[in-house]
């Protein structure tokens, strides 16, 4: 069982989360380098703003800096779900999890397989929301789901749930 704990810890440590709201390209690249990110997983449902982080532009920027880019738009958080939940973040989390597990399980499975198979890579789940509170953003909820899948496959019981992390402990901040 100890071996499985190590596998779970390694898997968990390889999945980070980042946001792009209010950040320029140079700062964003610095954050990725500090986190030792090899692959950016873009999970924005809508990627209109800012234009320099549109998928095509972001891919070019990352490739120029030897970072892979993959887009999983279907794992984004649709506006209809956000509107339905309003400020009720527990409901928002529940709606999002149900949405991806029911409607986009194949994309979730593909992302899990990508991360699970490529064990020497570090991943960053990317969205627009500038928050560090796991209760408030789908990038944290998706990370929870991915880690829960790994837990189940390794024979652990129960669901993984992130707890709030103080801003002082976040590597993304200066």
Principal-axis shape equals: globular
What is the H/E string? HEHEHEHHHEH
CATH topology: Protein-Tyrosine Phosphatase, Chain A
Q: Which strand-content bin applies to the residues?
A: 5-15%
Rounded to an integer in angstroms, the radius of gyration calculated over CA atoms is: 16 Å
Structure explained in plain terms:
The chain has 174 residues and is of the alpha/beta class. The protein has one domain: Alpha-Beta Complex (Protein-Tyrosine Phosphatase, Chain A). Helix content is 48%, strand content 10%. Strands 1-4-2-3 form a four-stranded parallel beta sheet, with helices on both faces. α4 packs antiparallel against α5 and α5 packs across α6. The longest helix has 16 residues. The termini are far apart. The C terminus is likely disordered.
SSE inventory with pairings:
Blueprint: H1 2-13, E1 15-19, H2 25-34, E2 39-42, H3 55-64, E3 68-71, H4 79-85, H5 89-103, H6 105-117, E4 123-127, H7 138-153
Parallel strand pairs: 1-4, 2-3, 2-4
Helix pairs in contact: 4-5, 5-6
Question: What are its keywords?
Answer:
globular; four-stranded parallel β-sheet; Protein-Tyrosine Phosphatase, Chain A; alpha/beta; 174 residues
Summarize the structure.
The chain has 174 residues and is α/β, with parallel strands linked by helices.
